[in-house]
Every structure is written in structure tokens, then in C-alpha cells.
């Protein structure tokens, strides 16, 4: 058992008969009344996000997890196949467990958190950004913009991303995996 002082981003806890991962937290000490911790929790079984407030000193049940590096091999319908880079063991995860499955390119390394009690994969952490090639986009026309104009583009994984007008087919772009937005041309 741990207390609210041990709360940090990425910590996995048992709460309301489910396993949640702490996405955000904020320790609040109001001028009047006791301190508390405001958290944003993401369910690792169904992906739902909820806000919860713990009073200071509240006991929380921590789930022991191990993090391993896995390489994405291929997808088959809603099943995504990964291989452990150390033991070469393969696992299959459902599309719902992944945060940004449309941005996952074959050969990409991801971090998978595994529950040590049940050996079940809990969550998949993508790299902060990924470089993908633009496979289709409309040509940008000069002079029809005021500022910061974008156009839709399709990348090699099939995801649609809004990009600036100067991006053409064949260009490689860096995409933020958390938001799915264009960052820069590579």
C-alpha cells in the first residue's frame, strides 16, 4: 500500500475494481481545509479517462508493473503483433489498448507495461514522435492563404494528418504521437 505522496505520472493503481494509470496529477494545498490530490486516471482495460480527487494521506493500492521494449511486427485486422526485443517472445494486443494505432509503423519500438502478478500487458507507450512518409496530398496553391493554412495528407500507415501547404508527396514528416499533429518536415 502506498499513500498519495507516492502518486506520479505513469503509476498504475487498483481503483474501483479496475486497473488505472495516472495520466496527470496535481497536489493542492488550499488556504483553508486539508490538502488533496487531483488526478486524471485512464482505465487500462477499456481506455476510459476519469477525474478523481484523493484526500491527503489516502492509501492507494499500487500495481507492480515491468516495462519491456517491444517491436511492432504487423497488424491483422484489429490485432497488433509485437515482439520482445530481448527474449523474442511475441504477443498480440487489441487495437483498443493502443493510444495511436494509426501512427504505428512496422519496426517501431514501443514500451509495453506488463502486470507482474498476471503477466498481462497493461498499456503501450509510443515514442514521443514518429517520422512517416506522405503518400498522398493535394498540391498547395500559392497565394490563397492568410496565415498558417493547412491541408489534409495521408501518410504511409494510412493515418490522415493536417500539414502545411509546402508539404508534397514523398516528403518525410515528424508527427507528435500524443496529439497526432504535424511537428516538422524531416
TrEMBL record:
The keyword Protein biosynthesis applies. Pfam families: EFP, EFP_N, Elong-fact-P_C. GO terms for molecular function: translation elongation factor activity. Residues 67-122 form the Translation elongation factor P/YeiP central domain. PROSITE patterns: EFP. Keywords: Cytoplasm, Elongation factor, Protein biosynthesis. It is found in: Cytoplasm. InterPro entries: Elong-fact-P_C (IPR015365), NA-bd_OB-fold (IPR012340), Rib_uL2_dom2 (IPR014722), Transl_elong_fac_P/YeiP (IPR020599), Transl_elong_KOW-like (IPR013185), Transl_elong_P/YeiP_cen (IPR001059), Transl_elong_P/YeiP_CS (IPR013852), Transl_elongation_fac_P (IPR011768). SUPFAM superfamilies: Nucleic acid-binding proteins, Translation proteins SH3-like domain. Pathway: Protein biosynthesis; polypeptide chain elongation. The keyword Isomerase does not apply. It comes from the Bacteria. Residues 130-185 form the Elongation factor P C-terminal domain. NCBIfam families: efp, PRK00529.1. PANTHER family: ELONGATION FACTOR P (PTHR30053), ELONGATION FACTOR P (EF-P) FAMILY PROTEIN (PTHR30053:SF12). Involved in peptide bond synthesis. Stimulates efficient translation and peptide-bond synthesis on native or reconstituted 70S ribosomes in vitro. Probably functions indirectly by altering the affinity of the ribosome for aminoacyl-tRNA, thus increasing their reactivity as acceptors for peptidyl transferase. Belongs to the elongation factor P family. This is Elongation factor P. It comes from Flavobacterium sedimenticola.
